[in-house]
Amino acid sequence: MQGKFGRYTSIYKDLSRVNHSCSPNTYRKFHMATFSMQLRAARDIEEGEEIFTTFTTDILQPAAERAKDLVPYGIECTCRACLDPTKSDPIRAAVRVGSKHDLYTSYAEIDAGVRTLARIEQEELHASVAYRQTLHELFSAYLYLHDEKTALMYGEKLWLARLAAGEALYDVFRNAEAMKKSPQWITGKLASRMGSPAHVMFKFASS
């Protein structure tokens, strides 16, 4: 754990026994108020399914780089992604690139975001920052388009993902009235009235 005055290492009676995976189904989150490490589900975990965490710095990096991160722990990962990196590495590279948009401004970009989300779910990368980024981008895009139903769908997923990651939660993710007061919704409304290029692209792509 990286802190204000350097790097810290800790050992926990139970959490230190959780096995590693490059597609973990949990987040580790240090809770300063109780000075404890929390383990939170990053996605639905089936009954009887093993709980995994990750000891790599970035689960989106190639298998060879992840392997270097695991050397100090004496771990040789045998998860699906590491057993077949020729299949997994390109998917993770595509996720890394595809999750770096600031705001989707056309249906083509939204479609690309949906494909990125599908790759994340395929590789079970729900514990990655890319998952929350992609959800946020799709949520914002559909707010801009005034597609309340779809925005609420992505907003609910985003709310749950941020809850699991221990990040701030906002009413706008789950409340339709709050959505309609958001900058994205208001900007989309103004753009529609003014016929801005971004809004024209949306209209053209959907025709």
TrEMBL record:
Superkingdom field: Eukaryota
GO CC terms of this entry: nucleus
Family annotation (Pfam families): SET
Ranges for domain SET: 16-54
Protein name (record): SET domain-containing protein
Organism encoding this protein: Armillaria gallica (Bulbous honey fungus)
Lineage: Eukaryota, Fungi, Dikarya, Basidiomycota, Agaricomycotina
